[in-house]
């Protein structure tokens, strides 16, 4: 009896030992299948391919608005389909190779922009070298009363413009008044502005105005401050000008144009860097051209002449 009990206990221990061994092997398999240190940020595994957190991030940038779970599901499907395409050897298709080649080339050349990053000293030198470019010409915000006349009407126009000037000076201050206000409708014969107080907007000292003749523009910027000018009478027309605001000539500071200079610098130097990268890439490989393309400088063959039919 004791012998039978002893044998039964041994059988139970043996059974437990086998179960323990199986559990150890299962755990070992799980450990082996877990991501190694190199793929510690893996989010999924599709076949033999690890999908990393950064892959999911890029995918979600391409598909904004997707939840993390939905994006991961679509990413896994995309990877599975891509692997199916590889099994079908679709990566050897000429169109696929062309797209892949163009993508790689574009990514490689995009490094040129990172190379072309100027420092503050270079940007400041560029700003100083283009000093004239940053000059801001004098500007004036003006209103005008315009009168056209014939030779016989010169004096009457002078008197009319002087009367308009006198009446304007007598007007009470009104911050809501535009230019000459109602006086423009009475005295001006300029159809585009007479009902807007004669307002012309901003006039620049370095460019011709669509409406004002050069002698009037010169008179405006000869004034040191805003105010009413004396009437200007030229050939066939007279002007009464009100300078509402005057801005002296100035220069845009380095801080104002720094970002613009940086963009221009990168654009200019990135192109040069790209050309250097292309040249270096071509020099690192052996290029052989076969067939008719091997002689690009050869003379073009003359077109075959079709023999004429006999008469």
TrEMBL record:
Keywords: Isomerase, Rotamase. It comes from the Bacteria. The keyword Zinc does not apply. Residues 291-311 are annotated as: Disordered. Residues 137-246 form the PpiC domain. Pfam families: Rotamase (PF00639). GO terms for molecular function: peptidyl-prolyl cis-trans isomerase activity. Gene3D superfamilies: 3.10.50.40. InterPro entries: PPIase_dom_sf, PPIase_PpiC, PPIase_PpiC_CS, PrsA_foldase. This is PpiC domain-containing protein. It comes from Roseibacillus persicicus.
């Amino acid at each position: 009896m004791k012998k039978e009990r002893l044998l039964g206990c041994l059988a139970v221990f043996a059974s437990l030992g086998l179960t323990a061994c199986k559990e150890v092997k299962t755990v070992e398999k799980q450990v082996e299948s877990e991501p190694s240190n190199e793929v510690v940020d893996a989010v999924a595994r599709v076949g033999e391919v690890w999908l990393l957190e950064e892959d999911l991030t890029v995918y979600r940038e391409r598909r904004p608005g997707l939840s993390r779970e939905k994006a991961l599901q679509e990413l896994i499907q995309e990877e599975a389909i891509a692997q199916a395409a590889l099994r079908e050897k679709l990566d050897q298709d000429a169109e696929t190779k062309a797209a892949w080649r163009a993508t790689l080339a574009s990514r490689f050349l995009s490094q040129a922009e990172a190379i072309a990053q100027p420092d503050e000293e270079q940007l400041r030198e560029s700003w100083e070298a283009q000093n004239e470019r940053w000059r801001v010409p004098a500007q004036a915000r003006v209103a005008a009363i315009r009168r056209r006349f014939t030779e016989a009407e010169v004096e009457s126009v002078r008197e009319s413009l002087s009367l308009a000037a006198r009446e304007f000076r007598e007007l009470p201050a009104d911050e809501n008044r535009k230019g000459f206000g109602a006086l423009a409708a009475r005295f001006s014969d300029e159809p585009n502005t007479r009902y807007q107080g004669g307002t012309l907007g901003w006039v620049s000292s370095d460019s011709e105005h669509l409406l004002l003749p050069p002698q009037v523009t010169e008179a405006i910027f000869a004034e040191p401050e805003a105010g009413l000018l004396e009437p200007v009478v030229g050939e066939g027309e007279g002007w009464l000008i009100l300078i509402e605001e005057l801005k002296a000539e100035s220069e845009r500071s380095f801080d104002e144009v720094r970002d613009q200079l940086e963009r221009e610098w990168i654009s200019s130097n990135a192109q040069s860097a790209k050309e250097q990268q292309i040249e270096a890439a071509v020099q690192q490989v052996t290029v052989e051209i076969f067939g008719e393309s091997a002689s690009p400088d050869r003379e073009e063959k003359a077109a075959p002449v079709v023999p004429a039919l006999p008469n």
